[in-house]
Amino acid sequence: MANSFKNSITGSVGTSGVIAYRTPSATTTTVIGVSVANAAAQNISVSAMVRSSTENKCVYLVKDALIPQGGASVLVGGEQKLVLGANDFISVTSSLANSADVVVSVLEVS
To answer: Do residues 39 and 12 lie in contact, with contact meaning Cβ atoms separated by under 8 Å?
Structure first.
């Protein structure tokens, strides 16, 4: 089994859901960090969802979290981890167009 640390960087997230990270097929992923930064000149609210392809479910990691101008929110980090199966993904939506930058740090096991 091969282990690989990776970052997925997504800029200018807006009002349409954007996939910030998707686990490759035949791979399991441990998400070790998810950070969302406000790149706008005003406050924004951000929602992040996790989609499980094996369970055919989509649930919120966070819903309508307020991030002030110039601020950031750590959705996953420290003691908290998240496990994703093959083809599972994390999507992010902001209340304002082109306003959020997302970094997802993972350990992929294939």
So the answer is: yes
Q: Which of 60, 27, 32 is nearest to 45 (CA)?
A: 60
Q: What is the CATH number of domain 3-109?
A: 2.60.120
DSSP for the chain, please give it: --EEEEEEEEEEE-SS-EEEEEPPTT-EEEEEEEEEEE-SSS-EEEEEEEEETTTTEEEEEEEEEEE-TT-EEEEE-TT--EEE-TT-EEEEEESSTT-EEEEEEEEEE-
| Of residues 73, 2, 19, 76, the one with CA closest to residue 44 | 73
* Model confidence pLDDT, tens digit, residues 49-97: 999 988 899 999 999 999 999 999 999 999 999 999 999 999 999 999 9
**Other CB atoms within 10 A of residue 22 CB:** 18
The closest alpha carbon to 27, from 95, 73, 74, 83, belongs to: 83
Say what the pLDDT of residue 54 is.
86
